[in-house]
Amino acid sequence: MHRFFVSPQAFASHPVILTGDQAHQIRRVLRLRLGERVTLMDGQGYAYEAALIALGESDARFQVVQRQPAPSEPRTRITLYQAVLKGDNFAWVLQKGTEAGVSRFVPIVCERNVVDDLDAVEGKRDRWQRIIQEAAEQCGRGRLPDLAAAELFKQAISAPSAVPSHAAEPEGKMLRLIPWEGERSLRLRDALAGCNFAAGARIEVFVGPEGGLTEEEVALARRYGVQPVTLGPRILRSETAGLVAVALILYEAGDI
């Protein structure tokens, strides 16, 4: 069944009306017929099965059949602080991270970043937001992952993420991790040993740029309570390291 994210306010009126690119996709790309059903998601954890009842040139109208909690959200909330990458590599991380189960993305700029202009990074926000939404629709997410404003590494490392308004405060403190090729002893699994996954753990993961993190950045991270961890004996590319860490964390949490 095709999925579409719709603003929560759209469900206040009946029928639910989709316009713009979504209406175009329904009419011209998917060529849905009257009576066919889709899943509409409000981005707040609920999914609505809805039937197409009218299709115009500029809108598509749906009658809600049933509402139920979206079952696909991981209990563990992961914020991925990913250094901005050249080309389409950052967009790829957003797409695959959404599929894997990341709850929040924060673009960061580090000392060795190839892309280091915060204003230029923010100029890509609309495209990145579309990529996140399309990936979330494709994989059946119940919530849209947040895309925070870009930050310098030193700013991001000094202030843990706020708890989203829709999330209860989990038991225990947030775990903050930074995969780093210079770490040799603390494995990711060992760092996760004290997590209360049953209560809904909150974990932040910081990933450096193509040139890697400097020792000064890692030292700064340590001062703010961020633990360097090793992901194994092989050095992973920046666009790979964060996704591997996310997958391993969700596996340990029982969400994969």
Describe the structure.
- This protein has 8 helices and 12 strands.
- Helix 2 (89-100) runs parallel beside helix 4 and helix 2 (89-100) packs parallel to helix 8.
- It folds into 2 domains: 3-69, Beta Barrel (Ribosomal Protein L25, Chain P); 77-253, 3-Layer(aba) Sandwich (Alpha/beta knot), CATH 3.40.1280.
- It starts with a strand and ends with a helix.
- Helices cover 30% and strands 25% of the residues.
- It is of the alpha/beta class and 256 residues long.
- It has helices at residues 20-29, 89-100, 118-122, 125-139, 153-158, 188-191, 215-223, 238-253, and strands spanning 3-5, 16-19, 37-41, 46-55, 59-69, 77-83, 104-109, 146-147, 151-152, 175-179, 202-207, 227-229.
- The protein is elongated, with a radius of gyration of 20 Å.
- The mean pLDDT is 91.
- Strands 6, 7, 8, 9, 10, 11 and 12 form a 7-stranded parallel β-sheet that branches.
- The longest helix is centred in the C-terminal third of the chain and has 16 residues, at 238-253.
Strand content: 25-35%
Largest sheet geometry = 7 strands, parallel
CATH architecture of the largest domain: 3-Layer(aba) Sandwich
| Low-pLDDT stretches | none
Radius of gyration: 20 Å
Output the number of helix runs.
8
CATH fold-level label of the largest domain: Alpha/beta knot
How many structural domains can be distinguished in the coordinates? 2
